[in-house]
Amino acid sequence: MIRTTRIASGQGFWGDWLEAPVRQVEGGPIDYLMMDYLAEVTMSVMQKQRSRDPTLGYAKDFVPLMERLLPALVERGVRVTANAGGVNPRACAEAVIETARRLGLAGRIRVGIVTGDDMLDRLDELLDRGNELRNLDTGEPLAAVRESVSSANAYLGAWPVVEALERGAQVVITGRVTDTGLTLGPMIHEFGWRADAWDHLAAGTVAGHIIECGAQCTGGNCLVGWERLPNMADPGYPIIDARDDGTFDVTKHPGTGGRVTVASVTEQLVYEMGDPRSYITPDCVADFTTITLKQAGRDRVAASGVRGGPATDSLKVSLSYHYGFKAIGTLVYSWPDALAKARKADGILRERLARLGLEFEQTLTEFVGVDATHGPLAGPPHPDIPEVQLRVGVRAPERAPVERFSREIAPLILNGPPSVTGFAGGRPKVEEIVAYWPALIPKSEIHPRVDILEA
Amino acid sequence: MGRKGVRRMGTRRVRLVELAHARSGDKGDTANVGLIALRPELYPLLVKQVTAARVARHFRGIIKGPVERYELPNLHALNFLLHGALGGGGTLSLKTDAQGKVFSTALLRMEIDVPRSLRVG
């Protein structure tokens, strides 16, 4: 007899649609709700919050969301896996526990905490032991930027999530667990897949990849027939109907908007893909050239045939470090000669910056409406183009030249080319650049840890 | 198009947007573009004509590094990695499209030769 489980995606990134997880829980039967909160530099934002207040450093939205959802989750027996814990999963879990007690759910909820990903306090020790943490893109050793590092997290896989589920956690809150591990974990737990069942683990990983960006596989951002997609004001977020033989369907709740088609799922499969034969996670190496997709009904795509290979000996590490500063200024020029005016303004601005002796690592000009998205591939604009937005960005290691740049945009309104508008936002904001440093570390250096709290 | 811009007999040029759909994303300073045939029978045309070299020429002056191509015949898709495409990538980039989200449609501007008899779209 085939065993099944239903895993719903409720959040594709920190800042995704707040209604989505609620609709997933209330819109029909599901067993699990997975939510992805962490992007590459999110951890450094969270480290900064934690350094100011030791009770912060996680996705704050998660707690009010749990307040809305906990009674229904308990009533329906739906379990949650979320990497909302950021750099402080324990604080996040404690806030959820407190919320549960306030809702009268004391004694009825266990929260699992997955930690061990955070390497920041151990970084020097790890470097001293010969882990160079070379940048995967440039090959440079981390020593080059060590003093500027603001976060360091290893990507943990599905297994600590499995342990938390096995110890009875209804809500599993993790630090830097892979997006795919949040979906694969429940499957391993439900189906008892072994650690070397590579094809099954690869299938769960592919399922996780499909739903980790929320509605991006159910019609969101999908090019095929986008103008005809029904009810996109209320898009259905994806649901995996998983089976213990490693096959699964992608679907969504009935009555919701959007569409689940081979086209919508395929677009998500190729999103952020490298070598398709080697999709590496902590749990396995999935081969995306083995996936078979078939339309199995309205808003239902069946996936089968997924093959995978053994996991590697290392974990990917996501580090972030202070790089410098940037600012981007914009002005809008109107017909007639909108582009010529914008070009003229750019020339004047650059001459002024040069006369001030300001040095930038890069100065980039784009003309939005003309070349900002496709560059020269777009060809020349219509001569009567109604408006063009001039968009100039600068980047420098020091704050001072960027700060000065930010004061050179507004004067152009009165002392530059005519018919200019669109500056209501005021002076460009100077932003600190926190850059991303991908690296590898041997698995033997990282020790995932699971704790359980009871409400 | 054949070499030196000579069109093959019995063919016409169409933009990829009539033959394929696409999605793109980022990994550091590299953009990836997944190009997916709108119908399985269009996939061989993509394999034959949308080569890594052709894509590199298409994006000349826009990307700084090389282009790699991977085939996914099971999904009737090709995956391209465009290196040095994002002005430093991630948070460093000053570009509107810092995350390479619309390299997909930029690739769909490319034109290839199809048989005159072929139904597109």
Write a short abstract of this structure.
The complex is a heterodimer of chains A (455) and B (121). With 455 residues, chain A is of the alpha+beta class.
Plain-language structure description:
Chain A has a ten-stranded mixed sheet, with helices on both faces. Chain A contains twelve helices and 19 strands. Chain A is globular and about 75 Å long. With 455 residues, chain A is of the alpha+beta class. Chain A folds into two domains: 4-117 and 155-312, no CATH class; 323-436, Alpha-Beta Plaits (2-Layer Sandwich). In chain A, helix 3 crosses helix 4 (89-102), helix 6 packs across helix 7 and helix 7 (181-191) packs across helix 8. Chain B is an alpha+beta fold and 121 residues long. Chain B has one domain. Chain B has a four-stranded antiparallel sheet. Chain B has a two-stranded antiparallel sheet with strand order 1-6. In chain B, strand 4 and strand 5 (77-82) form a beta hairpin. The longest helix of chain B is centred in the middle third of the chain and has 7 residues, at 43-49. Chain B starts with 10 loop residues before the first strand and ends in a 6-residue tail after the last strand. Classes of the chains: A alpha+beta (455), B alpha+beta (121).
How many β-strand runs of chain B? 6
As for the number of domains of chain A, it is 2
Radius of gyration of chain B, taken over Cα atoms and rounded to an integer in Å:
15 Å
CA distance, first residue to last residue of chain A: 36 Å
Name the largest protein-protein interface in this structure. Answer: A-B, 49 and 43 residues
Strand order of the largest sheet of chain A: 11-12-8-7-1-2-3-6-4-19
Return Rg of chain A in Å. 25 Å
Low-confidence stretches of chain A: none
Largest sheet of chain A at a glance?
A: 10 strands, mixed
Structural class determined from secondary elements of chain B? alpha+beta
Which stretches of chain B are poorly predicted, pLDDT < 50 over at least 5 residues? none
- Termini separation of chain B comes to 19 Å
Oligomer: heterodimer
- Helicity range of the residues of chain B? 10-25%
Chain-averaged pLDDT of chain B: 93
Strand order of the largest sheet of chain B: 2-3-5-4
Based on CA inertia axes, which overall geometry of chain A fits?
globular
